[in-house]
Write a structure and sequence with these properties.
alpha/beta, eight-stranded mixed β-sheet, about 290 residues, N-(1-d-carboxylethyl)-l-norvaline Dehydrogenase, domain 2, 2 domains, about 15% strand, Rossmann fold, 10 strands, about 45% helix, single chain, two-stranded antiparallel ribbon
């Protein structure tokens, strides 16, 4: 059984760990925060039990959970056939992680980042072997979304890139091949253009987030509206992405308003805290956004 090290036990990392375990891989889920690890395991248990009751899993929740081992160091890289980093969207942090991974992981182990905005080439520069670094940009919630961008950095070998495509397929996901490394890659650049306009329209009081989401779903066939997507990802994540984009000279993809920054300052981080562009009940039900709330 191949071993996967997933770094970061947040919304994305826990989802990546779950789909890897569902695909039969042995998973080492690493985070320095024991509370985050505890929450991640509980979240995976809840998710797999729910999927199981719907008949969407070939194995029991218990069998899948038994493949996941929580860890608090990067030492698991030494026995991993794949490493997927899903830490905070902070370039310096990711570069530090990859420098250490490059030292620990076997020479033939690909090192992947789940970054959604930072060029893979910049992260790979922190390593002695940039040819084995690539992007695997999952979309959340990972267990339900079928898409993963496979991103080739400037020095990523064709073999590692192709192995990334195969790995994504082994998880039951569909790869989108990104052959040239640019900030935000492909899908997020397209989404960012729409989300920038949507945020500005809401901030100006022209429309509500709920009506934008309904319009995009009914008018353009989106499965989820832009504000539903933002709440699921976490608005604090969008703030970090915005900072990363500004540092890369890509301000054109960012809303000029400080609407989201204000929401984050007020503690409205999205679904994970029960309030964002929507409010969420204790059962996780989404209820309409109230601008005066």
């Amino acid at each position: 059984m191949e071993s996967i090290l997933v770094i970061g036990a947040g919304f994305m990392g826990s989802g990546i760990a779950q789909v890897c375990a569902q695909a039969g891989y042995r998973v080492h889920l690493m985070d320095i925060d024991p509370v985050a690890l505890e929450k991640a395991i509980a979240s995976i248990k809840w998710s797999t039990e729910k999927l199981s009751t719907k008949g969407l899993l070939a194995e029991s929740s218990t069998t899948i959970l038994d493949r996941i081992a929580p860890e608090d160091t990067l030492e698991g890289a030494a026995r991993a056939q794949w490493v997927v980093e899903a830490a905070l969207e902070v370039e310096e942090l990711k570069r530090d992680i990859f420098q250490e991974l490059d030292r620990l992981a076997p020479a033939d182990t690909p090192l992947a980042s789940n970054t959604s905005s930072i060029p893979i080439t910049r992260i790979a520069q922190a390593t002695q072997h940039p040819e084995r670094v690539l992007g695997l940009h999952f979309f959340g919630p990972v267990p339900l979304m079928g898409l993963v961008e496979v991103v080739k950095g400037e020095k990523t070998t064709g073999d590692v890139f192709n192995r990334g495509v195969y790995f994504v397929k082994s998880l039951g996901k569909t790869p989108v091949r990104v052959h040239r490394d640019i900030p935000c890659f492909v899908m997020n650049r397209i989404f960012a253009a729409a989300f920038r306009e949507a945020v500005d329209l809401v901030d100006q009081g022209i429309v509500s987030p709920e009506d934008v989401d309904v319009g995009m779903k009914l008018g353009y066939g989106w499965n989820a509206g832009p504000f539903e997507i933002a709440d699921n990802a976490g608005l604090d994540t969008y703030v970090l992405i915005g900072k990363a984009m500004k540092a890369l000279g890509e301000e054109g993809f960012i809303s000029k308003s400080e609407f989201i920054e204000r929401m984050v300052a007020e503690g409205r981080l999205g679904r994970k805290v029960g309030k964002g562009f929507y409010r969420y009940t204790s059962e996780g039900k989404r209820v309409p956004w109230d601008r005066d709330d």
